Every structure is written in structure tokens, then in C-alpha cells.
Amino acid sequence: MTSDDATAAAYATDAADAPAAPDGDVPPAWDAVVLAGGASRRLGGVDKPGVRVGGRRLLDRVLTACANADRTVVVAEPRETVRPVEWVREEPPGGGPLAALDAGLCRTTSPVVLVLSADLPFLDTHTVRTLLTTLTAPDTRTPDTRTPHAQAPDAASPRFAAPVAAAPRPGPAATAPRPESADPPYDGALFIDADGRDQPLVAAYRRASLVRGLARLRAEHGALAGLPLRRLLAGLRLARAAAPDGSGAAADCDTWEDIAAARARIREHEHVLDEWMTAVKDELGIELDVDTGVLLDLARDAAHGVARPAAPLTTFLVGYAAGRAGGDPEAVAEAARKATALAERWAEEAAQNEGPDPK
Predict the structure, then answer these.
(1) 244 near 130, Cβ under 8 Å?
(2) What is the pLDDT of residues 38-86, one digit of tens each?
(3) How far apart are the first and last CA of the chain?
(4) Can you point out the beta strands (E) in the chain?
């Protein structure tokens, strides 16, 4: 093991043994930097951010998850995306993750920056919120100063399984514990994957900490091109958290096997409707929280109380009416309520007509 590997390794402490930190608040302002370059050698040079999972490009899936960012910067050649972003390239092109991060960071202004790779098929807004609140949580724990060692991943762990533990834990021992002060307790918060490994490109960082770290590395090495990301992490105090149970949010897609597994997972019964609704909203450019259960109940009532073809036609009309009424969730709920009541009246009349004494 090299010295860099040792520095980047996580603590011996299991995440399950670390006390959970209190939740923090979502920062009032935060930006997102998405690293979408790279050669994708394990995919045979295919443009990985453009590969579709569930009918949506991987990059678009990530951009949807961080749609609430004040500014989103994508480090890559410009391309069509689901929403407007700022584009920038690292110098030199193909200079590696630190050069790309530096280029993206120069376009940000918020004190907190979400840093993401472009190949996270199951990243969502809940995951993003977890990262942001973990970063801002107060540190009520005693820092662990034991010697770090490499974690041994469990080869049997499924690629998209969620880690067992969900508690943040202290960062690399290479960073000395800070004395009590007004300084924020963490420079960054990142997820660990199903094998317990750090995922520094599924993380939220304090911008000032990244700027200082990149400046230090540039001074030491003369340039950032070609340097591994772990050189930057070694100088940061990090909180770690497991992805929410069952989300697979920290899992990336490095191989075609990973892509196939992600596509299969999306079509599983418990995921398919949410995935489909999100895909349709992205395709139509709609930003709306929809109560899927209400619409499904309406479709059932229309199909049973009127006729099967009434189900899709009714939900279409409800959507149209909600759009004319403002298009917010309340408008959808009110239109669905009216249509459901109408379908129930139709069903009652049909039942009365089938009885012995229709009135």
C-alpha cells in the first residue's frame, strides 16, 4: 500500500459503532459541480453520461436530482441536457478529476458545493438533502485519532445494495482534530457505498475548504493535472454517511454490467412507477410533486364505475384542468377529487339500475 492509499483509507471504526450526529439544515445557498468528462475506458470509450437508464441519460438523472442548486456547472463538452447548465472544460482536457473539479469550482459562488459524478443512476433529491444536512450537522462526537487502515470490501455485496449503517463518522486521521472554535466542524460530507468505500464524487463540500486544498496541491506539485482525488481528501475533515436504505444512491456505473443491473432495478415493481413518473416529468419539462396514489385511485374508480378506457382519458382531463388552475399539487388534488366523486356517482347509478327497483 502506498502512502497515498494509507492516507485515503477510512477509519477502523465501523459506521454502525459511530454515534449518529444531529441533522443539520439545508444551506440557504449551494451550487452543484458535475464531473462528466473521463474516457469511459471500461465502457469501450462510449460517452457514459449519455448512456440511458430508464429511458433517461445518466447525466440528466443527476441534473434532476440537483435541480434546486443555485448554479449547476458541468465539466464536459456541451451537449443537450434536461435543463440549462453552465459548461466548462478542465485544463488540459482529460487532466483528471482534480483539474476538472478546479475548473468547475471557479464557476461557483455559493459557500457549499455539491460535487457529483455523472454516472449515478439512483441519485435523487432526498439523497442530495441528506448530504447537505450531514455537512451542516454540529459535531457532537470525539474525533477518532487512531491510525487509518484500508477497508476490505465484501466481494459478495450486491452492486446496488444499500449499506447497513447510516451514521456519519469522522474523516481521515491525517487531519488533526480542530480545537473548539467557530469553524464549521466538517469540510465535507460524503457517502460510502455498499462495500463501505468512500464516494468523494457523491458529496457536499465547503467551497472555501476545496479552494484551500486545491491551492495547496497546486503549490506542492505545480499543477493539478494527473493528481488523484485522494490527495485532496487527505487534507479535509469529512463526515461520512451511508446512502438511505435501498436507494443505491452512492452506486455508480463503471461497466456494462453495472448499466444492466441499474436498468433491471428500475423495472422492479417497487421502483417502476416512481421512475416512470420522473422520466415523463423530465421529458415534458414539468416540475411538479404528484400524489401517484390519488391518480391511481381515480383511474381505478373511472375504470370500474364507467368503462376501462375512461381511466386514461379521465387522468388526462384532470391534468389539463389542474394546469389551467395553476398546475400546483393542490390543483391536481382538487381536480382529482371532483373527478373521483363523479366516477363514484356513475358507479352508484349503475348499481341502482342493476337492482330490483331502480329509482
Answers:
(1) yes
(2) 766 777 778 889 999 988 899 999 999 999 999 999 999 999 998 999 9
(3) 86
(4) 30-35, 52-53, 56-57, 72-75, 86-88, 112-117, 188-192, 198-206, 238-242
Instruction: Give the SS3 label for residue 30.
Output: strand
Give which of 68, 45, 46 is closest to 125, Cα–Cα: 68
Name residues of the chain where pLDDT drops below 70: 1-24, 39-40, 139-183, 244-247, 269-270, 355-359
Angle CA 204–206–209, to nearest 5: 125
* pLDDT (0 to 100) of residue 23: 59
Say if residue 218 is in the same domain as residue 328.
no
Residues 242 and 308 in one domain: no
Which CATH number goes with the domain that contains 187? 3.90.550.10
Q: Are 193 and 250 in contact (CB under 8 A)?
A: yes
Amino acid 183: pLDDT: 62
Interhelix angle for 292-305 vs 329-354, to 10°? 20
- Residue 142's nearest CA partner among 11, 234, 8, 232 is 11
Structural domain boundaries enclosing 204? 3-266
Number of domains in the chain: 2
Q: Tell me whether residue 345 is exposed, middle or buried, using C-beta atoms within 10 angstroms of its C-beta: 0 to 12, 13 to 18, 19 or more.
A: exposed
pLDDT at 89: 95
Distance CA 220, CA 235 (A): 13
Together in a domain, 93 and 180? yes
Say whether both 188 and 225 belong to one domain.
yes
The span from the CA of 353 to the CA of 118, in Å, is: 59
Does the pTM surpass 0.85? The reply is no
